[in-house]
Amino acid sequence: MYALRLFAVRHARFFERFYGFFEATYVAAAPLVRRIGANRLERPVAAVERTVKGTLFDCRMCGACILSSTGMSCPMNCPKQMRNGPCGGVRLNGHCEVRPEMKCVWVQAYEGSRRMAGGDAILERQPPVDRSKEGCSSWLGVLRDKGLVHREPAA
Ligand code: SF4
């Protein structure tokens, strides 16, 4: 929902803190995730993630969340899906050239990042989107990337 998306950017510091707490919680739950099996949990966890983050951030479930690096503004809402800053078409009023009614997600990202303790992460270069992860839970992806759960073959 667009209004909530803007709200999240305005309160990026709160969401940064909340996510830090949340990530520590699910990292602590990694042994349980291992026992149940990350692949078995993929669908229900992805469904929860889609609902929560879809509501708050208009999340598109790219499977590799970078909200912490983009001021809580999801870059996948950019019509060009730019992952490393805005294109050259930002309007003078800070709106998108493709969807003039929408603020540029990267202008929003910059504003949100200035409110965050770790806001300088916006300067890090992001890799291209791995389309094979589309629809997957990025929360479980974090556990996989940290080596806390095994990369099982797809179920
Ligand atoms: S970066 Fe990806 S996972 Fe994160 S909110 Fe955007 S679409 Fe969802």
Q: For the residues shown, what is the average pLDDT? A: 95
Q: How many structural domains does the protein architecture include?
A: 1
Tell the overall outline.
globular
Element order, helices and strands? HHHHHH
Count the DSSP helices. Answer: 6
Q: Give the termini distance in whole angstroms.
A: 32 Å
State the major sheet. none
Q: What proportion strand?
A: under 5%
Number of strands: 0
Unreliable stretches (pLDDT < 50, length at least 5) are none
Computed over alpha carbons, the radius of gyration is 16 Å
Listed once per kind, the bound small molecules are: iron/sulfur cluster
Helix-residue proportion: 40-55%
The assigned structural class equals: mainly alpha
Task: Explain the overall architecture.
- The chain is mostly helical.
- It has one domain (2-145).
- The protein has 6 helices and no strands.
- The protein has helices at 2-10, 12-28, 30-36, 38-57, 105-113, 138-145.
- Helix 1 runs parallel beside helix 5.
- It is globular.
- The two termini are 32 Å apart.
- The chain binds iron/sulfur cluster.
- Residues 53, 57, 59-62, 65-67, 74, 76, 138 line the site of iron/sulfur cluster.
